[in-house]
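Why show two proteins at once? Because comparison is the fastest way to build intuition. When a single record is shown, students tend to memorize it. When two are placed side by side, the eye starts asking what differs. So, the first record is below.
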Amino acid sequence: MRRIGVDTGGTFTDCVLIDDEARTMAVAKVPSQPKHPDRAVLNGILKLLDETGLPASDIDAVYHGTTIATNAVIMDRYVRGGFIGTRGCRDVLEIGTQMRPDLYDLQQREKSAIIERDRRVEVPGRIAADGTEIEALDLDAAKEAAKRLVDDGVQAFAVGGLFSFVNNAHESAIAAMLREEFPDIYVAHSAQISPEPREYPRFATTAINATLAPLLDPYISNLENSLRDEGLSCPLYIMQSNGGTGTAARSVGEQAHQLVLSGPAAGVIGAIFAAEPMGMKNLVTLDVGGTSADIGIVVDSRPRVRHDMPLPNGIPLTLLNLEIETIGAGGGSIAWVDAGGALRVGPISAGADPGPVCFGKGGTEPTVTDAQVLLGRLNPQGLLGGDLSVDRGAAGEAFSNIAETLDLSVEKAALGVVAVMEADMAGAIRQCAARHGDDLRDFTLVAAGGAGALNAVALAKTLGIPRVLVPKRPGLLSATGLLAAKLRHDLSLPLIMFADEPDLAAIEAAQDDLEKRTLEVLETDGIPAERRRVEFALDLRYLGQEFAVTVPCEKGEAIEKVLERFHETHERVYGHSSVDDRAEIVAARIIGWGLFDAPRVETQEGDEVTAEPETREVWFDEAGGYVATPIYKRHALKPGTTISGPAIVEQLDTTTVLLPGYGAKIDASENMVISEESAA
């Protein structure tokens, strides 16, 4: 098979073509186009086809990670939505949980309600907690309210009813009416989007879906049409927040909110794929691009997942997603001095346009990339194999104001910017590890993205992580991860019962229903029967708790064994458990997998050799200034090659900084493994 993976970042769009039969990989990196991201995707694919000489008809599948949804939630830019809910629920989206995101911030902004109050309406009709109707739905009132919202310019409807996860008759009736009366306006209802208890997260998730789908649906549709026009009639798969892919048809509409972590999730899957041949199973993934750094934790080759995602504006999004911490620290992050005289980095980024000052595209504010160029860590002769010119003098001028304000040399100011960003990254990694009691000495740091390898060794030194893995193409790891991901579907059904008095028939019926629906979806997606897999789980909690713990189980497994596993999981996650307290089962879950062949590329063994480098003046804080530093070309480092720091390793998609006292060795897959012990 020949497959293409395309990951859209804030600054560059990365493309990888893997030919499984020939065991070869071709790569391309093109500038992102934030206003027209589909053009960058197409440009990258066409560049790959041009360089390989392959006709478009020879491509079997295209996999894509997009940041459309990610950027929309970060910048709070949704389409104009309207909300129709049960009488008394108009302000649920605004009241939320009454918890402040930052307890001690007296100037914090009020969190977004997603849909403003004048576009939220309530209608008569009520479902009780047991699913019985206690007040009939007034559908005429809902229709009149909807007409007023349409006159107000809404582009999407979110429908939320109390206890619709038990009985969705009212929601379904309103949704059907809206689709009939207003066929051109997208409609989402909560029982369809998030059929789980707790009305605020359910309504919020539905509102997010409703206001994202009109942004994503035309983008994916246009991309499909553009690919088809260029002769690529193969399937298009989109990366989801859960670490799996979905067909283009199942990545729009009611699944649109599943793409909020589309890009970051691919980087974690790519890290697992890169580390697997070396038996590295516990990983900290660090994916640093132009605008942000994404940090994930992998234990025993499985990425950490969670069922709720707190968005930057404090809104809870209910969906299964990889536990990724994102901070505003990337190559394009802007350096500045606050009112108190402290040096800050980010979260605002220069992005791809205008970009860092040194790129000469109109940028005027100093960025992290400018600092790295000034310190000699990035090649002043140009990046991307010389395709992107760099102006070191302009980088120095950009730092003159900060240097003057802080009474430092421009080099010291640049070094301070790098140190601040690395401190922010180290803090985020510590937070991720502490959340589950992880000992970072048991992990390998995987550097990904265009800027991850610049900071990885310094972070490992600070955090006590013993090894750093820099994959063969770290700047393209997310694009490679797209090709390593499996197709995935997640479904759930609510179940409310005591674990010591289980309704086994209800559990079996729920699991049968979930399995039937999941296998039907996989069949529709074109997955052969022998490549379909399902995994079951139950959500349990102690009586009186609000949040549950997901416990994997076999279909029909004895509840006593599941309960024992629940106590163990609760102890590991929260540090305590109580076998004497009563527990309840609150939901049944299923994961449906469509298995694809893992990408195959050539590996080669090699004898231990030492490469011949060039030299360049590079600033190292350990040396207190510029040092004549060996500069290696990554393509010249064959398997078995060892090098010692201080050193710089350059390649098309990234640059690796090797600190003094550290050494690196190239393995059979041409990955670079760095550790303190291997230093010469």
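Second record. Ask yourself what differs from the first in the token line.
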Amino acid sequence: MSNSLYDQDYYLWIEDLLNKIQEKRWDEMDWDNLWEEIDDMGKSQKQRLTSNLRILLMHLLKWEFQPQKRSNSWKYTIIEHRRRILEQLEYSPSLKNYLNSNFEATYQKARKDASLETNLSLNTFPNQCPYTIDVVLDENWFLE
């Protein structure tokens, strides 16, 4: 096992870095691990955004294509994941570009998820997303 503070006690490593930054002790910084952590933070933000969009799109598809099975649970999931996306975009507006560029790929995954979860044929769901990103994120829009 490594003797670095990063490997031994992550929280203490963070506190140590914060102290070094505050005291401007740049030559003592653990730059390699800090760079890795910051890079991972960015990836984590993108993954969280994509995950919430995927769940939202899957539930919109289920809502539209299985109206007889609609439930408050599905409705809550749609509202909640829409809210999570909007809050994340409010906090990090630059992620909107990432969301736009990955919208269709995320839809394709949501489409497969919806097919698996509903036992409906994949062909039941449109090949291209039937909703625009603006509609999907519109808190006042709901399929009825």
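One difference worth noting in the second protein: The two ends are 57 Å apart (CA to CA).
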